[in-house]
Amino acid sequence: MSSANDIVLFHKQDITPDTFAAPAERQLSGSCQQAVEMHYSDPTGQFHAGLWSGGVGAWRVKYTECEFCTLLEGYVRMHGDDGSVIEIRAGQHFVIPAGFEGVWEVIEPARKTFAVFEEDRLARKD
């Protein structure tokens, strides 16, 4: 059984961000610089939560996981391979479903909280 002491408060943790750029073959524009502060991963390795930030740029994405986000700062645009486009601004909450393929475009430097769940690949029947 968990207790209140097991609750993870992001602002109470001192985490060094993992910085990186989208792989070169997926970059479309800009530097695609990003940083992740992983604040929680469950024992199964299927659920993760933290903070992400990204600089101006655009890169291709293919989601195998479901992700819930709150954009804290900035302005981003998601382009689906089906031609759909959605604009997301600071203060908005959104879910990116597993299976989404398209382009993640950062229009203004962005920062978001995220919670990711990826189905157990060993149990999944592809």
UniProtKB/TrEMBL annotation:
Gene3D superfamilies: Jelly Rolls. SUPFAM superfamilies: RmlC-like cupins. Residues 43-114 form the (S)-ureidoglycine aminohydrolase cupin domain. PANTHER family: (S)-UREIDOGLYCINE AMINOHYDROLASE CUPIN DOMAIN-CONTAINING PROTEIN (PTHR40943:SF2), CYTOPLASMIC PROTEIN-RELATED (PTHR40943). This is Cupin domain-containing protein. It comes from Vogesella amnigena.
